[in-house]
């Protein structure tokens, strides 16, 4: 129970903040984490509740972000962020070990996915939140994308890219 274990105490980002959205509820996998402030900074996306506990997401781990207005999927308009990372509370997955085959190893081939929803009390801020995220995401090109070839100085990357 209580707060999720990945919440940590850290100071709000001071540098490169493109957008700051107070009074924004964070929801992970359908469970609310409470209300806090969303910081869309150039280095990472951070959410901090008023007590100073929060979490950060690195842009390279964010596979999708979108403004969701589909009220059948979720009752409030929000910024939807899909992350390639595990954010479960420790201990939630331990229970069904009795089934035998379901050991830790089976998780490895499955790409971990976490779904965050950031629900601002001010819905008119969603477009600004989204475009700030696009700007910051663009500062972190995916090394797998061909377009980002020219960001690399090193020859070895080009050789790898050709070899694929």
TrEMBL record:
Main location (coarse class): cytoplasm
Subcellular localization: Cytoplasm, Cytoskeleton; Cytoplasm, Cytosol; Nucleus
Coiled coil (UniProt feature): none
Superkingdom, natural source: Eukaryota
GO BP of this protein: cell volume homeostasis; chloride transport; mRNA cis splicing, via spliceosome; spliceosomal snRNP assembly
Keywords of this entry: Cytoplasm, Cytoskeleton, mRNA processing, mRNA splicing, Nucleus
GO CC, alphabetical: cytoskeleton; cytosol; methylosome; pICln-Sm protein complex; plasma membrane; spliceosomal complex
Renumbered residue ranges of the record's region Disordered: 91-112, 137-164
InterPro entries tied to this protein: ICln (IPR003521), ICln/Lot5/Saf5 (IPR039924), PH-like_dom_sf (IPR011993)
Bias type Acidic residues, positions: 99-112, 143-158
Alphabetical list of Pfam families matching this protein: Voldacs
Family: Belongs to the pICln (TC 1.A.47) family.
Purpose of the protein: Involved in both the assembly of spliceosomal snRNPs and the methylation of Sm proteins. Chaperone that regulates the assembly of spliceosomal U1, U2, U4 and U5 small nuclear ribonucleoproteins (snRNPs), the building blocks of the spliceosome, and thereby plays an important role in the splicing of cellular pre-mRNAs. Most spliceosomal snRNPs contain a common set of Sm proteins SNRPB, SNRPD1, SNRPD2, SNRPD3, SNRPE, SNRPF and SNRPG that assemble in a heptameric protein ring on the Sm site of the small nuclear RNA to form the core snRNP (Sm core).
Protein name per its UniProtKB record: Methylosome subunit pICln
Annotated organism of origin: Uria aalge
